[in-house]
Every structure is written in C-alpha cells, then in structure tokens.
C-alpha cells in the first residue's frame, strides 16, 4: 500500500463513524494544490545538477497551511501528499488555527556540502516563493532540514516580500525562533506517554521503554521519559541498536551523539542489538521515532510491547495496525503523538506576529496545555465509541476540518 493509500484507509475508517458522504470524503481528501518544481543548481565541483522539489498544500479551511520540508533521497509526490494530509488532521486534532501542507526535495543531504545545501534551499524558495507566506503556507523543519535551513528560507523569501519572520518556523532561537522548539516533538511524545500510562494504570518506573531513532524526536523523548523515571532500556539510530537492562544512561548517550556528528556509532555503554531486534523487545512501551513503515504485517506478530507511541510519521502500516489492534495493543497515533512540534511552531509564528519572544517555561506550559486537552478529547471519544485512539483522533480532526469547510462555504 502506498503512503497516501494508507492515510486514506485510516481516513475512511473515521469517515464511516462520522457518516460522511462520498462527495464530502472526496472533497476533504483532495489536495488544494500540488506544486512540482525543477531545482537546477551548480554543485561545488562546477557540475550542474537538476533536482525535483514538491510542495503539496492539502487544506486551508481552518487557517494557513502548515507543514515541514523534508530533504531525503526517497522523497516523492505520493509521500509528500500523504504527509500533507496528515498535517491537516494533526493541526485540527490539537485545535490550532492551521491547515496542512508538506514539502520535499529528492536529494541525499549526506552527500551535500553546507554551501550546496544552502544553494538548493534558496533555489527551491525561488521556485515556490509565490505560493508560501505567513498567511498562506508556512514551512518548518523535517528530516534532512534544520534551523539553519529555515533561516535561509526566511532570508530568501524576505528578499521578495520584505521582512517577515513568520513565513517559516523552526528558525534558530537567536534569529526569530522560539525556545523549546527543538525539544518540542520529543517532549510532546513524553507528555502523551505519561498520560496514556496513567490511564492504563501503569507506573513510569515499571515501564521499560525502547526507542527507535535517536535524532531530534527520539533523543528528546528519551530524555523526557528518563527524567520521568521510566527505564529507557534500548535506543537506536542508523548505526544500530543499544540495549542496557538497567536502563541506558540517556544524558550520556545524548552527549555522545552530540560529540559524534549526531551518531551513536561505537557508543560503548550498552550491548549491541539490531534495529529489528529493538522493535521486538519485551518492553512495556515502544516508540518508533525514525522512519515510516517500520512495523508491517511481516513483523507485527513479533512486536511484544502492549503500548506503542507513534513518534515518527506513519511508522505502522495499516495491515499491521489491524493485527496489533486484534491483540489489544494500544497505539497513540502520529496525528496526536508527534503534534508537539507543530504546536510549538504555532507559538513561534504567533510570537513572530507580535514581535515578541516567549520564554521556555511559558512554551512548555502552553505545550502541556494544548496536548493534554487534545489527549483527553481523543481518549474520551475512543472510550465512548469503543474505537481505537487512531480512529478517534482522525474523527476529531476530520470533523473539525469538515465543519470549517462547510462554515466557510464550499462553492
Ligand atoms: P532526525 O533526522 O533528527 O532523526 C532521525 C533518526 O532516525 C536518526 O537518529 C537516524 O539515525 C535514525 N534512523 C534513520 N534511519 C533509521 C533506521 N533505518 N533505523 C533506525 N534508525 C534510523 O529526524 P527527526 O526530526 O527526529 O524525525 C523523526 C521522525 O519524526 C520522522 O518520521 C519525522 O517526520 C517525524 N516528525 C518529526 C518532527 C520534528 O519536529 N522534528 C515533528 C513531527 C514528526
């Protein structure tokens, strides 16, 4: 099943509960605009390279469209389209005044110099500057992009339209960014994990955690849960998995990754395991925080964790989702679980519009408030209707977008 088909599958399950007509389903699923552009750049060696960039603007019924920009060699239109629609439901689930979008450039960033990365970014903005903006579509970081890339986007866009830092979020804190944006997604995963554990009657200290991916999201989720007394027994990244029965020393692992180009390779404080073994560990909580599609019908039967928090986007394929549900595994879906990032992006955009800067305490407090409210709504709906947390989250999101669409007037 391709990425967009998977989102459609979850959408339709929720749309059945909402008794949406076929016409309304088609309207809500169809992206407003899909842009594909050529990015011709000169590389450091003088050679010309032609890349393809995408921006999919899925829906703006609830506000300007919002979504990350991914630089990864596997980026294609279908993936960007699916991630754009997930953003529409995600911003609606946490009830922030945005629609959904996503962008991407098919390029292997590990092969680029900083100057090449900057040229590609600026060229991409040259191609899409007229469809993005603080009131229309606001990009943010995703895999392969970071705060520095966001600063280049702001600078390039401002050359056309004048100073306006709200055109992009996830900027460096000292350059119109917001404190706490970097940790926000991982912290949000941690907040939601504790809330779910409390509803399930489990104590943090009895909850062993395995986390796949130790980048921005995985490392901050690990840090938060470690501080909350959950033994984080396994972590991993591209270099493989690291297991420690008594709990990995997360602060030490974070320092190690920071000092070694964000990699855990040769981290000596734990036993080595593979990424597949990590997913199948006998733990109470599993957090996939790397790639999409890592839990499939092929390995679903081997997953032993009774609780999974989807920190990555779409880490569980629909066929695996059904198999896990049959076994009573509780899954906190991506549209809720990783919404902390877009929530703090919203705070950044709001502060940019006020020419003001919030402090970290305020950001954390407001993040907790927004995610807690969304969690309660999703949890209660799932219990009232006896449906999964995923279907409940999609119902909330789709319901809000549907109402805004009708209120705004369709034709
Ligand atoms: P990142 O690039 O900072 O980190 C990704 C991590 O995954 C790295 O540690 C990398 O080594 C590891 N990884 C890559 N391939 C792997 C593999 N095959 N097996 C195990 N580990 C592997 O990315 P990130 O920002 O942490 O994003 C991770 C996921 O979270 C993505 O799916 C992204 O779309 C999603 N997400 C991120 C944010 C955000 O604010 N950064 C917000 C919402 C969703």
Descriptive overview:
The protein has helices at 3-18, 22-29, 77-93, 114-128, 147-161, 181-199, 216-227, 250-259, 275-279, 318-326, 334-337, 340-354, 360-385, 389-408; strands at 33-42, 48-59, 65-71, 99-105, 137-141, 209-212, 232-237, 240-243, 271-273, 285-288, 307-309, 330-332. It starts with a helix and ends with a helix. Helices cover 46% and strands 17% of the residues. The chain has 411 residues and is of the alpha/beta class. The model has no long low-confidence stretch (mean pLDDT 97). A seven-stranded mixed sheet has the order 9-8-7-6-10-11-12, with helices on both faces. Strands 1-2-4-3-5 form a five-stranded mixed sheet. The chain binds nicotinamide-adenine-dinucleotide (NAD).
Task: Report the radius of gyration as a whole number of Å.
Answer: 20 Å
Shape: globular
Summarize the helix and strand pattern as letters.
HHEEEHEHEHHEHEEHEHEEHEHHHH
- List ligands, each type once: nicotinamide-adenine-dinucleotide
Overall mean pLDDT stands at 97
Percent of residues in helices? 40-55%
Q: What count of helical segments does DSSP give?
A: 14
Q: Order of strands side by side in the largest beta sheet?
A: 9-8-7-6-10-11-12
Name the descriptors:
17% strand; seven-stranded mixed sheet; 411 residues; binds nicotinamide-adenine-dinucleotide; globular; five-stranded mixed sheet; alpha/beta; 14 helices
């Amino acid at each position: 099943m391709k990425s967009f088909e998977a989102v459609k599958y979850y959408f339709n399950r929720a749309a059945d509960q909402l008794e949406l007509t076929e016409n309304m389903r088609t309207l809500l699923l169809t992206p407003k605009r899909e842009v594909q552009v050529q990015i011709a750049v000169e590389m450091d060696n003088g050679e010309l390279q032609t890349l393809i960039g995408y921006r999919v603007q899925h829906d703006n019924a609830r506000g300007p469209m919002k979504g990350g920009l991914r630089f990864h060699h596997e980026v294609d239109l279908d993936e960007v389209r699916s991630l754009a629609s997930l953003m529409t439901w995600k911003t609606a689930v946490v009830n922030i005044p945005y629609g959904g979008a996503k962008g991407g450039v098919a390029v292997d960033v590990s092969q680029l110099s900083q100057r090449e990365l900057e040229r590609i970014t600026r060229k991409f903005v040259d191609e899409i500057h007229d469809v993005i903006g603080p009131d229309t579509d606001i990009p943010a970081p995703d895999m392969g992009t970071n705060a520095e890339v966001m600063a280049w986007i702001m600078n390039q866009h401002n050359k056309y339209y004048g100073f306006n830092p709200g055109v992009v979020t996830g900027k460096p804190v000292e350059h119109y960014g917001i404190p706490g944006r970097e940790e926000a997604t991982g912290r949000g995963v941690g907040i939601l994990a504790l809330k779910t554990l409390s509803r399930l009657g489990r104590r943090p200290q009895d909850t062993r955690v395995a986390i796949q991916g130790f980048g921005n999201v995985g490392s901050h989720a690990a840090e938060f849960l470690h501080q909350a007394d959950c033994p984080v027994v396994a972590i991993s990244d591209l270099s493989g998995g690291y297991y420690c029965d008594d709990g990995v020393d997360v602060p030490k692992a974070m320092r190690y990754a920071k000092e070694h180009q964000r990699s855990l390779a040769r981290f000596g404080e734990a036993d080595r395991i593979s990424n597949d073994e990590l997913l199948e560990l006998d733990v109470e909580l599993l957090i996939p925080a790397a790639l999409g599609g890592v839990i499939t019908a092929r390995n679903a039967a081997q997953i032993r964790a009774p609780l999974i928090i989807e920190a990555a986007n779409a880490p569980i394929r629909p066929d695996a989702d059904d198999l896990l549900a049959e076994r009573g595994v509780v899954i906190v879906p991506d549209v809720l679980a990783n919404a902390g990032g877009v929530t703090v992006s919203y705070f950044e955009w709001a502060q940019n519009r006020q020419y003001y800067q919030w402090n970290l305490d305020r950001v954390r407090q407001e993040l907790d408030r927004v995610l807690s409210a969304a969690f309660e709504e999703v949890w209660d709906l799932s219990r009232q209707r006896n449906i999964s947390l995923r279907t409940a989250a999609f119902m909330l999101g789709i319901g809000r977008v549907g109402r805004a669409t009708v209120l705004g007037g369709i034709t």
